[in-house]
Amino acid sequence: MEITKDIKYVGVNDHDVDLFEGQYVVPNGMAYNSYVILDEKIAVMDTVDAHFKQEWLDQIRTLLGDRHPDYLIIQHMEPDHSANIAAFMELYQDTTVVSSAKAFTMMKQFFGTDYPERQIVIKEGSTLSLGRHTLAFVAAPLVHWPEVMVTYDTCDKVLFSADGFGKFGALDVEEDWACEARRYYIGIVGKFGAQVQNLLKKAAALDIQTICPLHGPILKENLGYYLSLYNTWSSYQPEDDGIVLAYTSVYGHTKEAVDLLADRLREKGCAHVVVHDLARTDMAEAVEDAFRYSKLVLATVTYNGGIFPYMRDFIEHLTDRNYQNRTVAFMENGSWAPTAARGMKSLLENSKNLTFAEHTVRILSALSDESRAQVDALADELCQ
Ligand SMILES: Cc1cc2nc3c(=O)[nH]c(=O)nc-3n(C[C@H](O)[C@H](O)[C@H](O)COP(=O)(O)O)c2cc1C
User: Fold this and answer.
1) CATH architecture of 7-234
2) Which residue among 105, 126, 233, 345 has the highest number of C-beta atoms inside a 10 angstrom radius?
3) Is ligand 1 within 6 A of the CB of residue 251?
4) Ligand 1: residue whose CA is nearest its atom 18
5) Fold for the domain defined by 240-382
6) Exposure of 215 by Cβ count < 10 A (0-12 exposed, 13-18 middle, 19+ buried)?
7) Residue 384 has pLDDT above 90, yes or no
8) CB of 343 closer than 6 A to ligand 1?
9) Can you give the residue ranges of every domain in the chain?
10) Which residue, among 153, 155, 122, 154, has the nearest Cα to 139 in the 3D structure?
């Protein structure tokens, strides 16, 4: 695949991965992107996952023929991008590896060497000339590991954005960008909003015509759309007005109350009412929706004096990613001493700028006239 006349795609599609990064289901697979810049000097941008070593090396060999790469540029040391450094450096003995000091430390840890005789250490502001193309390196610490550098090609105005602007899904599957890019961003990069904001400020100073991420499609048109979504996500602002109802229920009574609330909200014309059974849904999808929408209802049974485990896990996923700037309401169930609402609220006590709904629904085992009235009151409040 040609990105520009001089920049070629040499990445791979992975349809065998069971859990990406050990936890994310990827129904449409995953792409590990790598690129080659052809100029007087040749640069290869990053490697791919270990399982695709041969496919990746074969693509490079087919593209280059007898020519050898001058540089291997490593922007990010996470193994889905760096696993084949040693194989590549073994095959191309006269290539120099170009990376940040922190990345070289990790390289030594992963491979037992940081190629001291064949390395160029770059930092913010470093440049590398390939001929017509000059690469300018921009530090992007914690987007999403500390060693990350992104690379701007001043000739073709391409930003190689490392994991930034990445997406779940292989490139041979057509699907909406935002949905799986959001689940990827919130799950994987969501904790590092401040660092992404810093990177966006640096990117604003560049004339970018193409974004080449390490996962997901190459972005060439409507770049303002992608940049604006990244700005919304990294500043922790809701993207859409909507209400997420996230619940756990052992015997179905709490679920019944949640379904009743969802019906009431829809009757009142609330846009976007999304319900997640936290024991059965993809947790990353529920977390994505909690960050996407402006309001969240947390409903759970009291469980051994505390909160049902999936709900605790869900709230920890939110607070780990700096959940803030939203309205939160609680529904609790308990058969002898309901304490779940208090417990859920205490897990959110350090979250910034949350507005807690005035009405809390308290169910004593099963819905009653009293708790139904509380559901109605909460629906009224959330739909104001
Ligand atoms: C294992 C277990 C532990 C529970 N612990 C408590 C508790 O500590 N306090 C309480 O008031 N109710 C407790 N309950 C009752 C539930 O909170 C709830 O009333 C019941 O599961 C009905 O809701 P559901 O149909 O949505 O599951 C417990 C239930 C189970 C199954």
Assistant:
1) 4-Layer Sandwich (3.60)
2) 233
3) yes
4) 334
5) Rossmann fold (3.40.50)
6) buried
7) no
8) no
9) 7-234, 240-382
10) 122
